[in-house]
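Posted in: Structural Biology > Protein-Ligand Complexes

Title: Requesting predicted complex, FE2/S2 (inorganic) cluster in pocket

I'd be grateful if someone could produce the 3D structure tokens for the following input. Sequence and ligand are given below.
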Amino acid sequence: MYDITFKFEQKGLEPITLSGIEPDQSILEVALKNNIELHHNCGGVCACSTCHLYVEQGEDLVEELSDREEDFIDRAVNPRLNSRLGCQCVLMDGSGKISVTLPDQTQFLGE
Ligand code: FES
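-- Reply #1 --
Done. Output follows.
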């Protein structure tokens, strides 16, 4: 089980910490199930970059970055060293604390 903290670059949004999160799901799925806005224009199949986020803590607890994911991160707005795609950050078996920061979602159109 994981504890996941979501922080937001969008002004006015306070951090949210979710506890007891099961593995085998992506951070995108966790966000959507908990009504946290994170765009996902391709539906979570690593074919866009709108689910881009920054992993601040716990990068070892999610599946590794693939070459394909890296290509899409290069097209994201303001990529950084800790950039990942939320749909590709699948929680591995285990437990721990993960912290992510979501870019301002008001910059995206679509889902
Ligand atoms: S939702 Fe499109 S790459 Fe993650």
